[in-house]
Amino acid sequence: MSDSSNTLEFAIKLADTAGEIARRYFGTPLDIISKGDESPVTKADREIEQTLRNLIEAERPEDGILGEEFGTKESKNGLTWVIDPIDGTKSFTIARPTFGTLIGLCNKEIPILGVIDQPITKERWIGQKGKQTTYNGKPVSCRKCPDPKLAILGTGSASQISHEDPTRLSRLESQSRYTVFQGDCYFYGLMANGFLDILIEDHLGIYDFIALVPVIEGAGGKITDWRGNPKTLTGDATLLACGDPDLHKKILEII
């Protein structure tokens, strides 16, 4: 594996580059294209990803790439960059700064580095396997909250959580303090900073969650699928993250 300090510097370079492009488009009228799964994409999404892919191929040609917009380049050395150029395109198109760029790196199947970058508010979370997560360069930690009744719950949408089990969300809401919706990757940064306790989602692509894993784990939280399995390059589309690992056990029983 490449030197970890050089790898981190390169990840920061990718985030800086993505941010420059996102700021250029943010708050301007954008044509919204619906992909095959009906999710939206814009010129900004595609320009960011293509630019980052070009950088990776030029400076780290042995590394693999998995991106939301342009597919997979196989790794020759076991390292794979996972890119979501704009996580929260709906928010981006209405100039709501809860979107972010997600940049993850896996060693084989395991996430080892993750960046959540919010280029408008200039907030950046960096997680590295075995190290404490930072927020704008300062260490941060999830808060302790073992009691579901005191926990703040976040999710993308009610239908996302209840599509196969109509009572799942109501069970969670009855056991938690209150619920907030549609925060995209920004919610995971808030969890790392100690402001949210439970995040639950479904229908995620790999590019949606790989970068989140080192951020949440490095802040002391627990992030798995709905069966308690680690989130990796070969995992399923469900996700449960809790700031308190003891709370995570309890929420798994509820869902």
What is this structure, in a nutshell?
The protein has 255 residues and is of the alpha+beta class. The chain has helices at residues 4-25, 43-59, 89-93, 158-162, 168-175, 186-192, 206-209, 212-218, 245-254, and strands spanning 33-34, 40-41, 64-67, 71-73, 79-87, 100-107, 110-118, 123-128, 134-135, 138-139, 152-155, 178-181, 198-201, 222-224, 239-242.
Can you put this structure into words, describing what you see?
- It is a single chain.
- It contains nine helices and 15 strands.
- By secondary structure, it is α+β, with helices and mostly antiparallel strands.
- The protein folds into two domains: 4-139, 2-Layer Sandwich (Fructose-1,6-Bisphosphatase, Chain A, domain 1); 148-254, D-Maltodextrin-Binding Protein, domain 2 (3-Layer(aba) Sandwich).
Task: List the topology elements.
Layout: H1 4-25, E1 33-34, E2 40-41, H2 43-59, E3 64-67, E4 71-73, E5 79-87, H3 89-93, E6 100-107, E7 110-118, E8 123-128, E9 134-135, E10 138-139, E11 152-155, H4 158-162, H5 168-175, E12 178-181, H6 186-192, E13 198-201, H7 206-209, H8 212-218, E14 222-224, E15 239-242, H9 245-254
Parallel strand pairs: 3-5, 11-12, 11-13
Antiparallel strand pairs: 1-2, 3-4, 5-6, 6-7, 7-8, 8-9, 9-10, 13-15, 14-15
Helix pairs in contact: 1-2, 6-8
Query: How do the SSEs run, as a string of H and E?
Result: HEEHEEEHEEEEEEHHEHEHHEEH
Oligomer: single chain
CATH architecture of the largest domain: 2-Layer Sandwich
Query: Could you say what the CATH topology of the largest domain is called?
Result: Fructose-1,6-Bisphosphatase, Chain A, domain 1
Tell me the count of domains.
2
N- to C-terminal separation? 38 Å
Low-pLDDT stretches are none
Number of separate helices: 9
Tell me the strand order in the biggest sheet.
Answer: 4-3-5-6-7-8-9-10
What would you call the shape? globular
Supply Rg: 17 Å
CATH class of the largest domain: Alpha Beta
Strand content: 25-35%
Largest β sheet strand count, sense and barrel closure: 8 strands, mixed
- What's the pLDDT, averaged over the residues? 94
Helix content: 25-40%
The fourth-level CATH homologous superfamily of the largest domain is Fructose-1,6-Bisphosphatase, subunit A, domain 1
Structural class: alpha+beta
Strand runs, count? 15
